[in-house]
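Dear support,

Our group has been running a series of protein-ligand predictions, and this particular one with nickel (II) ion is the one our PI (initials K.S.) wants archived with full inputs and outputs. We had some confusion internally about which version of the output was final, so please treat the block below as the authoritative record. The input we submitted was:
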Amino acid sequence: MKDSFLKTMALVAGLAVLIAAGAWMATKGAGNGPGGGFAPVAGASIGGPFTLVDQNGRTVTEKDFPGWLLIYFGFTYCPAVCPTELQKMATVMKKLGPDKAAKIRPLFISIDPERDTPEALKGYVAMFDPRLEGLTGTVEQIEAVKREWRVYAAKVQDPGASDYTMDHSSFTYLMSPDGRLAGLYKAQDKAEDIARDIAGKLE
Ligand code: NI
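Confirmed final output from the archive:
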């Protein structure tokens, strides 16, 4: 338990270093397109093959998602961060315009598979954007994608409540059709800047 916690923290620290390096590169003006300001993440070893369950209860793998993906990891019980980020993702899709947005599949992957059933996910994601698709899976399947995408997520028991909540990292990942990380966006990044960055990468 402690060992896996340390490993997770090491992964999160690795992501933070990646972003810090990107911020430093941005101030130096190196490697940024007209969108500017985002981490040069091309080639970072994030993401990989997966087996999950979609919002209709079907088993899916990375082969079912061959194009550009915009992925956010969260959970439907999240009181604040996930709804904000999914709303932002919907805004990004709108700002991209229909032609560019049609090249991207936005995904919400649950880090709380014990409560996020396919049905729960389906109703939840539809509130943000009809194009947004929810994916969940077994605990083991979700642990595997968390490792691949270096997502930190852990149950937190609120002493005043009967139910638990989830503490989790919050990044939006742009994956290119070859399965590589093409963009990594933080909670502080604005929808219009993200949309401009993605638009530049789709060309
Ligand atoms: Ni959340």
